What we know:
globular; 15 strands; single chain
Amino acid sequence: MSERSERTSRHSNEASTTPRSGGVDELRFPDHFLWGAATAAYQIEGAARDDGRGPSIWDTFSRTPGKVYQGHTGDVACDHYHRYADDVALMAELGLRAYRFSVAWPRIQPDGTGPANPRGLDFYDRLTDALLDRGIDPIVTLYHWDLPQALGDRGGWTNRDTAEHFATYATAVYARLGDRIDVWTTLNEPWCSAYLGYGNGVHAPGEQDPGAAFTAVHHLLLGHGLAARALRSAGARSVGITVNPADVRPADPESAADAAAVRLVDGLHNRIFLDPLLAGGYPDDVREHVARIIEPTFIRDGDEKLIAAPIDLLGINYYAPGYVAGRPDGAGNDAYPGTEGAVHFVPPTGPLTDMGWMIEPAGLTRLLERIATDYPGVPLLITENGGAFPDKPGADSPDGPTQVMDTDRIAYLDGHLRAAHEAISRGVDLRGYLVWSLLDNFEWAEGYRKRFGIVHVDYLTQRRTPKASARWYQEVISRNGL
Ligand code: FCB
């Protein structure tokens, strides 16, 4: 949990540990464990005006002074739109078996509604074929935050119509790619879209309105439900959603006040999404909390039933845990409306990434086990995990100036893969792991200054250089373990 200032086919659920000479155990992942990498359209594609793409709320937001580090935009980004063939060749070289990308809604419907733009669909058609030619499974995310600006102008996710439009858009993408793509996910991290977009305003569209944040939560979930229903009736085999559940911890495990703070924050971050998706509806305590801030007239009869329709896969993005204390003088956090005067969000300590996020792999084991226990029956896929570190090309390298010896990233990934393996050995049905990210990219409000890639991108030349972590990951994939 961070403030963000802060295939899956059936397989035996066997993870094994074998002693290796030298005393270090060798960890093997289950057969058919899906190894891959993830990216998102706005963060890598560039080509912001090519082939009829319309503006998105991120184009607008990044041009708003003071919102994104040094006014960086996604106009060019990694120029992946023009370089996708080379990027796919690199994925194949690294041995990736799966690639999660997102489709930019503004390429498909430049104004958010109306007929699909064939040239926008052509790009994802080419990308899909390039992946399949190399034996890489495509995993689609339909919405990774780049809402068409025209819909933003009509209230974005605070407008119920956006959820209906999302289902129409999903149907258009499926009509073109559904014959070749098996795994479909609707939204990426609706927590961020709602609370960072409308609560603390750190992300597009940059609103700061607690009631709007809760309205957006519901319309995002409704959009998921409507799109999932549309995809299924069109014939989609695997439909899911990606969330970023938080491992919320008490500052003092003995304190009842801290336990209450955990319950509140867990409700606002986790149960407000997971209960409607996987347990039939919103939890009572969360409903009561929301009603103190806004009358939830946006929840209509039938919505919860739609949202709760079974899914085939739950994508989990995990980066860091978060610690909270229950305190009457707690400042709360605008990303968690209604926590002021109740919750103190403990500043992260300890080993941190370049984002200032705590490095605590055990949080991933706890989170996976908790979800498997509280929401049984749905297979899990880690759709994102990785770390930003201040990579210095050339540093410590015997191999010349472009090599990046990112030992801190390797340690981060190694720790989290061990944590994921631990969860599997405790019975969690985890189907795969997608590293965030393939490439250094536009890290939202942080612009290009934070680097998450296992492949270094020189933004002046667009040269890609696999970092040491990419070579390490290649080895992990080839031996299906550590
Ligand atoms: C996740 C986002 C992804 C990236 C990583 C670091 O919240 O889904 O786009 O920014 O964080």
